[in-house]
Design a protein that fits this description.
Layout: H1 8-15, H2 19-26, H3 34-47, H4 53-67, E1 73-78, H5 89-104, E2 108-113, H6 121-130, E3 135-138, E4 156-159, E5 170-174, H7 176-189, E6 195-200, H8 201-206, H9 210-219, E7 231-233, H10 238-248, E8 252-255, H11 259-266, E9 276-280, E10 291-295, H12 297-314, E11 325-328, E12 330-333, H13 341-346
Parallel strand pairs: 1-2, 1-3, 3-4, 4-5, 5-11, 6-7, 6-8, 8-9, 9-10
Antiparallel strand pairs: 10-12
Helix pairs in contact: 1-2, 1-3, 2-3, 5-12, 7-9
């Protein structure tokens, strides 16, 4: 006959206590005397007891719901100097993905802006604590100088940008190195030899310099005559971009800024006849016109909520040891803005 699986009931029978006492002892509840807790835990170990993770999460959720009948709230925190409606489309798409996923899981989300007139970081912390909001999704910040600090012992958070490591939260952001690899390798496979890349210094910083890291690795393996130095300026203006293109004459321009495509067309460049153009991780869901490495910004927001939900249910509040980083991969999408040099020759 198969041996019965150890349970709170079998432990309670061996210990001479109730099942409720066993449950509280295994959770280190202060209402159970320390010596009783240790005796019950020893019996549980001897019996080979292991908790059912699904049941544990369910009971934790039910206990929380008994405390508060309101829907649990997750804060979406904007730490930039500008309000949400003035932020880039990437941040807005991340927020939307987070809100949609939170609603699917039974959470409400509320927006908080650190730089709202009359608001300070300390005041935001006070509001969150007073309302019992422990889960936070941090939208992308501008740069390293704009990263702020939160009292980690009171919150569980997930940051959605690469430069927010100072927060000490887990992070979800684009896989910059892989995305650059996807963009460059697809262009190379199409026959492009002189690939030009431009990126502003703030964009370069937000990518942790990983776009350029892959580019330098790639250029080591191609002839020196085809190695176009990237355009990397604090601010890339039309004049700087056009002068750089005229000097180096690339076959294709790879850029994280879709606006550069518009600049070229407004200046009379024919795309892809005069030059091909590909976008690297643009904050758009448009398909077919501009060839691109598409990054799932909505997926970043949804993944942040998934991580936060799991951690709120299974981990105590407090600093996270060695925060994890989840990388969202890029995907190549063809578009009419890229025409292979090989196709031009055949034509």
């Amino acid at each position: 006959m198969a041996k019965a699986r150890p349970s709170c009931k079998t432990i309670a029978e061996a210990a001479g206590v109730s099942s409720m006492t066993v449950s509280m002892a295994l959770r280190d509840h202060p209402r159970v005397a320390p010596e009783t807790r240790e005796r019950i835990k020893k019996i549980a170990r001897d019996q080979g007891y292991t908790p059912d993770p699904n049941l544990t999460e369910l009971m934790r959720y039910l206990r929380k719901r008994n405390i508060s009948k309101e829907e649990p709230v997750i804060a979406i925190l904007n730490g930039r100097s500008q309000p949400l409606e003035e932020m880039g489309h990437d941040a807005q798409m991340i927020r939307q993905g987070a809100k949609e996923r939170a609603e699917e899981l039974g959470f409400r989300t509320e927006d908080f802006w650190l730089h709202k007139p009359g608001m300070r970081l300390q005041r935001v912390v006070q509001i969150l604590e007073a309302r019992g909001i422990r889960g936070i999704v941090v939208l992308p910040v501008e740069d390293l100088r704009s990263v702020f600090s939160l009292p980690q012992e009171n919150f569980m958070g997930v940051a959605t940008c690469a430069v927010a490591a100072k927060l000490g939260f887990n992070q979800v952001h684009p896989h910059f190195y892989q995305s650059m690899h996807v963009g460059v390798s697809n262009l190379a496979e199409k026959g492009f030899k002189r690939i030009g890349f431009c990126i502003s210094e703030p964009e370069d910083e937000r990518s942790n310099h990983l776009y350029q890291s892959y580019l330098f690795y790639y250029q080591r393996g191609i002839p020196a005559k085809d190695r176009i130095p990237p355009l990397n300026e604090k601010e890339i203006t039309r004049e700087k971009l056009f002068a750089w293109l005229k000097k180096h004459n690339p076959d294709v321009l790879l850029s994280p800024n879709v606006e550069h495509y518009d600049w070229l067309r407004e200046a009379g460049w024919k795309i892809p006849e005069d030059i091909s153009f590909a976008a690297l991780g643009p904050a758009t869901e448009e398909k077919g016109r501009i060839a691109q490495v598409q990054v799932g910004y909505r997926k970043i927001g949804a993944t942040a909520i998934d991580l936060l939900k799991t951690k709120l249910a299974n981990e105590p509040l407090g600093p996270t040891d060695n925060p994890a980083v989840t990388l969202i991969r890029g995907e190549w999408l063809d578009g009419t803005s890229v025409q292979s040099p090989l196709a031009k020759v055949v034509g």
